[in-house]
Amino acid sequence: MNKPITTADAQPNDLSQFWVPFTSNRDFKAAPRLLVSAEGMYYKSHDGRDILDGTAGLWCVNIGHRHPRVVEAMKAQIDTLEYAPPFQFGQPLAFELAQELSNITPEGMDRIFFTNSGSESVDTALKIALAYHRIRGEGTRTRLIGRERGYHGVGFGGISVGGIVYNRKFYGPLIPGVDHLPHTHNLEQQAFSRGQPEWGAHLADALEDLVTLHDPSTIAAVIVEPMAGSTGVLVPPKGYLQRLREITEKYGILLIFDEVITGFGRLGTSFAAEYFDVKPDLITMAKGLTSGYVPMGAVACRNEIYQAFMDESPAGIELFHGYTYSAHPMACAAAMATLQVYQEDGLFRNAAELSPYWEEAVHSLKGLPNVKDIRNIGIVAGIELASIDGAPGKRGMDATVKAYEAGLMVRVTGDILALSPPLILTKADIDKVIGMLGDVLKTLD
Ligand SMILES: Cc1ncc(COP(=O)(O)O)c(C=O)c1O
């Protein structure tokens, strides 16, 4: 066996066996960035450096790293019940967690289906939408509508409704009967907006055109991220989500909010639905549900949707769908403790209270070399850099690597840097994140 990388002076193992996801394996294995431990706002790198976590891991570690209450709850759970089958059997914590979670989902959306990831939550929500129409006798509603630049994970359902070309183009025709709304990004109209851009609500009217083209009787659901994170932080224009809700309601189309990133306090509220005051029919979530301590996702749906399955399905199983690890006991224990931490430590409030300070801080980077746009909402920021001619993505990646070398973790999509630190952050942490990133931006080619 190769020597594990656990100490500050450890030499990297043989890195060839692990196929690293969504990463240039050739670049990464030539200069790996390995994280060996973590606490609070910081990771420790394999070469012994503190790395300030500017991204809550991958938009998930909202309560910060190794929170003792969650660690304890997980230890206690493994000593009690490590696994129970979720089909035809159950375990109490699954029901208790669904109840706890329903206390923070929008009113009337308290029926919860558990999954293991955001991608599974998206596929689950799309399947619930299709099956819902069918059991009610509207089986012609099979079309799904996503949005350009949308990211809904990597399942076939998610990449079909998703709108990021590299995530789609290698994988054949995808699922049929999918169409896309235009994305909402327009630098000419929106550059350096603070919070929601003023311009762009009318882009939701494109849904009317799709309804006219396909006929409402063929459309099952529209899925959007209320704030598109992975494509580079696209904040919805004022009035846009409201307009989508009006149109979907008018034509009996289900509206799915993919809140895998925006759920659990990222915008200072439980969910973006609350922040924007728009209630969808289904909400997908994952990441912040367990703060990333163990994989878990969920779909919350309107009670009427669940009830339709109970009322209209023939006797027996109402929804032919589920995962071996749906409501896994370890995940339930982590999620229960995480929800408690959110509440007891007031983390959503902390995010809400700090968001004006965050906004000021991130916009202070305006004017630095190559900064084309800065956008923000809640405790999220996107910093769009000018691309190097003929080498799109290079400047963004260079910034990410330099930031890491300087002790800061940022996330990159093309030439857009995203920041989304843990919600335990303080003003001093914000100053550090922005100070370090500013220094990096000044040194970029
Ligand atoms: C909006 C959204 N949906 C779905 C996913 C996929 O989640 P996972 O990677 O857990 O499958 C992500 C991941 O970033 C996401 O941001």
Please tell me about this protein's structure.
It is a single chain. With 445 residues, the protein is of the alpha/beta class. The protein folds into 2 domains: 25-63 and 346-443, Aspartate Aminotransferase, domain 1, CATH 3.90.1150.10; 72-344, Type I PLP-dependent aspartate aminotransferase-like (Major domain) (Aspartate Aminotransferase, domain 2). It is 36% helix and 16% strand. It contains 16 helices and 15 strands. It has helices at 25-30, 56-59, 68-78, 92-102, 118-135, 156-161, 165-168, 187-190, 206-214, 240-250, 272-276, 303-312, 329-344, 347-363, 394-406, 427-443; strands at 35-39, 42-45, 50-53, 111-115, 143-147, 178-181, 219-224, 254-258, 282-285, 297-301, 371-377, 380-385, 408-409, 411-413, 416-419. The protein has a 7-stranded mixed sheet with strand order 4-10-9-8-7-5-6, sandwiched between helices. The chain has a 4-stranded mixed sheet with strand order 1-2-3-13. A 4-stranded antiparallel sheet has the order 11-12-15-14, with helices on one face. A hairpin with a 2-residue loop joins strand 14 and strand 15. The longest helix is centred in the N-terminal third of the chain and has 18 residues, at 118-135. The protein is globular. 47% of the residues are buried. Residues 1-9 have low confidence and may be disordered. The site of pyridoxal-5'-phosphate (PLP) has 15 residues, from helix 5. Pyridoxal-5'-phosphate binds at residues 59, 117-119, 122, 151-153, 225, 229-230, 258, 260-261, 286.
